[in-house]
Amino acid sequence: MNNAKISTKKLNLYYGANHALKDVDMDITANAITAFIGPSGCGKSTFLKTLNRMNDLVDGVKIDGEVTLDGENIYDEKVDTTLLRKKVGMVFQQPNPFPMSIYDNIAYGPRIHGIKSKARLDEIVEESLKGAAIFDEVKDRLKKSALGLSGGQQQRLCIARALAVQPEVLLMDEPTSALDPISTLKIEDLMEDLKKKYTVVVVTHNMQQAARVSDETAFFLVGEVVEKDITSNIFARPKDKRTEDYITGRFG
Amino acid sequence: MNNAKISTKKLNLYYGANHALKDVDMDITANAITAFIGPSGCGKSTFLKTLNRMNDLVDGVKIDGEVTLDGENIYDEKVDTTLLRKKVGMVFQQPNPFPMSIYDNIAYGPRIHGIKSKARLDEIVEESLKGAAIFDEVKDRLKKSALGLSGGQQQRLCIARALAVQPEVLLMDEPTSALDPISTLKIEDLMEDLKKKYTVVVVTHNMQQAARVSDETAFFLVGEVVEKDITSNIFARPKDKRTEDYITGRFG
Amino acid sequence: MDQSILVKRVRVSDIVITAAIYAAASLSILLLAGIVCYTFVKGISSISWQFLTTVPSSLKGTFGIAGNLLNTLYIVVITLVIATPIGVGSAIYLNEYAKPGKVVRTIEFTTEILSGIPSIIFGLFGMVFFGNTLGLGYSIITGALTLTLMVLPLITRNTQEALKTVPESYRSGALGMGAARWYMIRTILLPSAMPGIITGIILAVGRIVGESAALLFTAGSGFLLPKSGMGFLTKILESGGTLTIQLYLCMSKAQYGEAFGIAVVLLVLVLLINMLTKYLSGKFNVETRE
Amino acid sequence: MKMAFSIVRGRHSKNAVEKAAQIIFTVCAFFAVLAVFSITLYMLINGTPALFKVGLKDILFGTVWKPTAKEPSFGILYIILTSIVGTAFSIAIGVPIGVLTAVFLAEAAPKKLAAVVKPAVELLAGVPSVIYGLLGIMILNPLMYRVETAVFKGSETHQFTGGANLISAVIVLAIMILPTVINISESALRAVPSQYKSASLALGASKIQTIFRVMLPAAKSGIITAVVLGVGRAIGEAMAITLVSGSSVNFPLPFHSVRFLTTAIVSEMGYASGLHREVLFTIGLVLFAFIMLINTCLTKLLKSKDTQEKVKEAGSRSEGKSCGTAGEKKNRAGAAVQGEA
Amino acid sequence: GCGTTETTTADNGAASSQAVASETAGTDTAAAAAGSEAASGETASETASEAASANAGLSGSISMAGSTSMEKLSNALAESFMAKYPGVTVTAEFTGSGAGVEAVAAGSVDIGNASRNLTEEEKAGGVAENIVAIDGIAVVTDPANTASGLTREQLSGIYTGEIKNWKDAGGADQAIVVVGREAGSGTRGAFEELLEIEDQCAYANELDSTGAVMAKVAATPGAIGYVSLDVIDDTVKTLSIDEVEPTVENIKGGSYLLSRPFVMATKGEISEQNETVQALFDYLASDEGKALIESVGLIVTE
Ligand SMILES: Nc1ncnc2c1ncn2[C@@H]1O[C@H](COP(=O)(O)OP(=O)(O)OP(=O)(O)O)[C@@H](O)[C@H]1O
Ligand SMILES: Nc1ncnc2c1ncn2[C@@H]1O[C@H](COP(=O)(O)OP(=O)(O)OP(=O)(O)O)[C@@H](O)[C@H]1O
Ligand SMILES: [Mg+2]
Ligand SMILES: [Mg+2]
Ligand SMILES: O=P([O-])([O-])[O-]
């Protein structure tokens, strides 16, 4: 795979004694959507978080191996994690808006990265909210607290917030698990759009979703990547028995 | 509908000035699974919470109209909400285990309701955990904190906790939105089991799930119940144009 | 792409603020450590068995703080026994029972006022009200009652803050299972909030032990030990100076050796109290969390 | 299917316990109101008579304090100014240092260092303020005297104070409030849900940006508490600074020996009688009024911003997995059901 | 002002001249104090064992409150009195002269200590002024000061702010730090009254106890202060006034200017008090009591 945006080699991660990722080798293709599937607790979120070094924040985490972004090792000592995380944006499993207004939530990232012009910020806020299919619902209360939104609205707000810094890679940890089908569809459409410019990685429990939106799919099991392939292959002709069993609902 | 376990008449609910439920009339059939579907923010959770008076806890809520359980008005002044909530159990959208051991989480409800015998509690804990398809995963660490479980495990724990008080009605607010397909299937199977003895109400965003598990489905839109019918009718021959549009993904 | 992640961007404001943080922290840590060390160096030589176990004698010209130690203990215990339930109860009412509105705002406002009242005012009030009006005179009980008013907001506030950090989902979870409110508070909220409550109590003990202005005019400066078993009971009606009062008196008489000696004892005392409460709250955490 | 119990039938013993609990807590809550009410009442009863006997203007705006002279004069303007200036400066020094130290402990310090420093700070929060006064006399005053002799060398007009001056008092107060400010701010910072931090970092914010733009605003309520308590402690402190400040009534200039409202009461209450004693109660009343004013202003000022954003309470409530829903109207955290909207 | 001054001086004079009658040996105050301290210790224990049977009957408690300068006397008195009468508890609070008199007037304590004469108002309230001892006021400087004595005019000049430098008062070129007591202090009242500089003093430090003045003066080069004679030690240097040294003899002889009475006020005359309180005053008037007063560095009256 020549156009791998992100590659990992022999990536191992330990939470103290808990060996949560085992020798993960993976190439994540640029300008494509990669889906991670697998049963609960298998390490999908953990792997996702190693890609923008969010695991650095967890105490007692030990990481071995290499992760490269555009050929640069992101675990290099010289890495500017700020820049890394601007390039590799993230949407979390639980919606986590800041305790500030909707507007300020979206403008937070751009402001951090030095945008001060009110007009430019207004524009970014509107674009991002539209991108996350929530603009119409909140346009009249941009100055109100984001904590007043429903769970689904909050999650879409968080997606908008991640888009506002215009990342190159977008990591999404079950971004639609709190959304209704309509919003979900919009987000899925959005992902399609995004992959034209960006690289998207999405963790999902919804096999249909993985099949629908992703170009490639990786199947995780107890910290290992059992199989990674083009999505249609994974669902139509899985190479590994365990993948097949999981997809057909035979275990979990 | 003669065997309505719960009925509401002209139920209106206001969060301050926000009219969140409008003239809701609904009969919820005993020993059946009723699903609520509808776009984000349409009042599904709100309606669910009026059924066991969890909305009492929200400031500035005003409720009009009648809700009866077995013919008794649950908003009557004389109602013992403790008993009401024992009978009408609830599983929340976000997993919310208590900061105590797994065992104590499950035993919490039975203890409230006066069960003290260690043997009896052990039995209930095991049964409930098995019922929620999580026993095998946690049986070796019943005395460990429930907060150490993964999201999916936590949600199944919460379901087990709700089952432990042997409710008559079980309200579930998107109980599987944080679960992987395997666990989801188990929970769905479990619902099937439960409806033999209990009345189950489930809010879901997953139309397939509603179609799969429920006997009846109600479609909510901006605080109103647009349509409620036997599930197969709703999905096959919706009477209302809006229902049809929603189900076929034409709006949201 | 355009920027390599391997080149760290320099953000001047970050560097400046980080420097400020480190400077401030080193300054306060050095200051505080310096205070402790200086006090120990100056005071440790005054401490002897006699210093700890006798009362001052002007005939023999000896000095000891046994009476003050006992008085301090009395006042701490009596004050906490009264103030803790009231403070925690008040916080529970404000956070868990009261509907927001005028009443809550009034109570929170007055609690704030109470926490801001200078100890000298408590001293004046205690002297006039408990001492004169209630006729308790200069006595340990007058001091303890006065201090109760003083530490009450500390306990209320800390408990309230602790209760606020307990996630709402715990409440709805428990209430949704049919738990009554007080049962829910007892089994879920209080254990979760216990570290915060204990913090409040630590701060309260600290304030009581360190208080001087409010005690000078209320509990007085007696330094005698009770003469008999009954004396331990009647002692609460007699005047009794805490260690801090004695420290102040020594200091204003320029008996610096004794003053630093008492200061060392006070530091050790506060340290012990802190360690004890840490241990207790740790135990609580283990019981409820694991 | 009707089960054995009707929901209407309550269990009485349990209800009684619940009722009792609620009543007891309500009573507890009103205790503070009662206390403040009676303190206010007593201060008014004891403090107002002198105001009228001496004259409001003569007391509050007079600059001559000669309570025992043949024609006594009870002007406390300088004393009031000293309290204002002294408190303001000690807060201006102590609060930033304290909050930054709290940031250090909560966010920047290595775990092990924090584990040593935190208990030390807690220890110092409990250290009697008199000890700070003791150290002020032993260390600060001689130091200040040296500065004073250097600055005013050859001055004919300056009254030499031997180092007991406003600066010394301000420094003692600033150091004294440090532990309180550090402790409370640190706890407030730690209570900020970690999800805010991860969200901010994931957007590419640096650690410092995260702290100053998300964590500190979310911890605002705790930090206000810290400042209010700090102000209270500084303006209310008496014993620590009586000896350090020189305690003469003078206009509050850095090298003047000054007297605070509190030290005025402490140093003379024991000796005063008659009108003098009543005036000391009036000083108490003024002090009391000050505290009321400062408390009200500080909290009003800082809270009013909050209300607009409706942020703080919901923020401090939600934790870890759950996310807040504050609703449309101002929704007191007290009863908002979260984690499910 | 004049009237009061005369009365006070007259009182003092009378007290001093009476005090001369009782014989006290020793020129050095400290030595005398140490000596008689030991003596009274013996006496107390002897008396306690001798009269144990006679005293066993007396029980109850006595509460005192008031002047801080009388602390040394009160504590010594309480301790030896309790040793003699084991059934009695004597407690003492040191809140200041005014508070002491107020407390005794209100009936909340048995004895109010004041380091000054009672005011006419206080006496009118039915409080009896029982002078138990005479105390001298010494003028002190830091030990390094080169001035050895001051004239009365120089002293007044320093305290009123006319003289700001030691070079104008027979010392080196050094700024004077004027230390004094707070308004209402018995010591300050007596000091200003005797020098006739009431209401004219410009203090750089107004400290609220004798000990604090001692400490400040000892630690501050160029400082001057005034304190009770009984607390003098070698951390400070005492100055002569008009070339008279502040010694017990000079005070008794009336040649030293600065002295004042210690009062133990009661509500009503001593004879109207309960027997425990009467016993205390009897004890003070006894030889044993006089020895005690001298042992703490004070001058016995009558
Ligand atoms: N902060 C942490 N500290 C210790 N262990 C952790 C931590 N986070 C996760 N784990 C453990 O690591 C394993 C992988 O967790 P992870 O959250 O990556 O699973 P997941 O695949 O995302 O599951 P889910 O689908 O439930 O979100 C689990 O066993 C989990 O218990
Ligand atoms: N505690 C509350 N206070 C004020 N308004 C609220 C509160 N909870 C919900 N609302 C409002 O009531 C409406 C209905 O909310 P509800 O949570 O019932 O929707 P929902 O259908 O469950 O949505 P979702 O699918 O996103 O969970 C929304 O507009 C929401 O903003
Ligand atoms: Mg996950
Ligand atoms: Mg909902
Ligand atoms: O303490 P005095 O009243 O004696 O100055």
Automatic annotation (TrEMBL), chains A, B:
GO terms for biological process: phosphate ion transmembrane transport. Its main location: membrane. It is a peripheral membrane protein. One of its GO terms (molecular function) is ATP binding. SUPFAM superfamilies: P-loop containing nucleoside triphosphate hydrolases. It holds the Pfam family ABC_tran. Coiled coil: none annotated. GO terms for cellular component: plasma membrane. Its EC number is 3.6.3.27. Keywords: ATP-binding, Cell membrane, Hydrolase, Membrane, Nucleotide-binding, Phosphate transport, Translocase, Transport. Residues 6-247 form the ABC transporter domain. It is found in: Cell inner membrane. InterPro entries: AAA+_ATPase, ABC_transporter-like_ATP-bd, ABC_transporter-like_CS, P-loop_NTPase, PstB-like. Part of the ABC transporter complex PstSACB involved in phosphate import. Responsible for energy coupling to the transport system. This is Phosphate ABC transporter ATP-binding protein. It comes from Eisenbergiella massiliensis.
UniProtKB/TrEMBL annotation, chain C:
It is found in: Cell membrane. It is a multi-pass membrane protein. GO terms for molecular function: phosphate transmembrane transporter activity. PROSITE patterns: ABC_TM1. Keywords: Cell membrane, Membrane, Transmembrane, Transmembrane helix, Transport. GO terms for biological process: phosphate ion transmembrane transport. GO terms for cellular component: plasma membrane. NCBIfam families: 3a0107s02c. Belongs to the binding-protein-dependent transport system permease family. CysTW subfamily. This is Phosphate transport system permease protein PstA.
From TrEMBL, chain D:
SUPFAM superfamilies: MetI-like. It is found in: Cell membrane. It comes from the Bacteria. GO terms for biological process: phosphate ion transport. CDD domains: TM_PBP2 (cd06261). It is a multi-pass membrane protein. InterPro entries: MetI-like, MetI-like_sf, Phosphate_PstC, Phosphate_Transport_Permease. Residues 306-341 are annotated as: Disordered. The keyword Cell membrane applies. One of its GO terms (cellular component) is plasma membrane. The chain crosses the membrane at residues 21-45, 75-108, 120-140, 160-182, 223-244, 279-302. Keywords: Cell membrane, Membrane, Phosphate transport, Transmembrane, Transmembrane helix, Transport. GO terms for molecular function: phosphate transmembrane transporter activity. Residues 80-298 form the ABC transmembrane type-1 domain. Residues 306-320 have a biased composition (Basic and acidic residues). Part of the binding-protein-dependent transport system for phosphate; probably responsible for the translocation of the substrate across the membrane. Belongs to the binding-protein-dependent transport system permease family. CysTW subfamily. NCBIfam families: phosphate_pstC. This is Phosphate transport system permease protein.
